[in-house]
């Protein structure tokens, strides 16, 4: 597999679900990993389980001061920040007449503004290093519409666009920016979705580990010429 020997990776929403799978896989590939999440107990447990190349940082991705503290803690612990996985996200599903402004604002704040704040927070350190890989988690809902997922879809299209503009601006500093677009993956977020109602050519939903390989690839030098790209990991669903 990829050798991330000593690379420092911060994973937002890293305490559970897909983020935890990314944190485990990056760690297994040799990275030093910061699990960043609102969930103290789950985040601490995971960092403890991973051991001395891992730590937990409490992070609210919607909060500027929280980002400043998380990046500072990362640099203090590990002396660098090579990989940022902007994975924290919420769905707030509702048909349009029931999508309150509060729900809309919350999904945009976490899924889109959170990604903006994260990218902005790590860029100074990555520029100083002359390298970095930013991996922004969008969705297949960042490529097509779905009923009842309006704020989510808008935020995920936003993440896709933000990734493109950052890739163009930051390439000259050795910083790569890519987006990943998972399909139906079994986590707490998707327990109420019936896979049979989706037309998935592979005929099943995925488990989080099946997306983690793409994240490790994008974190590693195996993807050294890959920037501004979009990785759909959906079992063929939107083909
Ligand atoms: P999940 O609900 O299991 O995990 C989300 C994590 O994000 C949780 O640990 C939560 O505490 C954290 N989080 C939420 N708000 C936060 C905040 N303000 N600050 C910091 N952390 C916060 O969801 P998941 O299925 O693992 O999804 C992870 C990401 O993958 C999301 O961005 C989601 O949109 C995306 N995604 C998921 C699927 C899927 O099928 N599960 C498909 C496509 C994209």
UniProtKB/TrEMBL annotation:
Belongs to the short-chain dehydrogenases/reductases (SDR) family. The lineage of its organism: Bacteria, Bacillati, Actinomycetota, Actinomycetes, Micrococcales. PROSITE patterns: ADH_SHORT (PS00061). Pfam families: adh_short_C2. Keywords: Oxidoreductase. Residues 7-176 form the Ketoreductase domain. SUPFAM superfamilies: NAD(P)-binding Rossmann-fold domains. This is SDR family oxidoreductase.
